[in-house]
Amino acid sequence: MRILIGIPLFALLAMLQTTVFSRISIIHGTSDIIMLFIVAWSLQEKVTDPWWWAGIGALFSSMITAIPVIAVALPYAIILMIALIIRRRIWQTPILMMIAMTIVATLLQHIICLIALAIGGTFLPIDVVQSQITLPSTLLNVFLSLPVYLVVRDLAKLMYQQEDYP
Check: CATH 1.10.10 for 2-159? Predict the structure, then answer.
């Protein structure tokens, strides 16, 4: 049942990504609200099905981008694995983990997209991409990571109605 809630939720996030968050940019960098949601969801302690949510998020994200599907799904899967490892081993301060995972996730996502574009024949200068896309995108994602984390935490509380939820 919880997985079915993810479909309209990620559809809404995809619409927000294409209409609102793609218009908010620094230089040429934009935020990725779907990626932030997946990171925040995977860091929630009581969540038992993050792989389904990451798959649904990758599906909707691949629908709104021209990047190949594997270049969208692979970073989400790697990000989710890292977040789950961090959640099991270093669960001290979830908000700091959210910020750290946001930085790692953004960098990883941009590296994989650059590799996918290079394989497709589009070569972009790394220094320009780093200074005009990756660093501004990382900054925007870090700014949005706290509000997204708080919204996702409240959503997880609603979906996992347990009184001992932190």
Answer: no
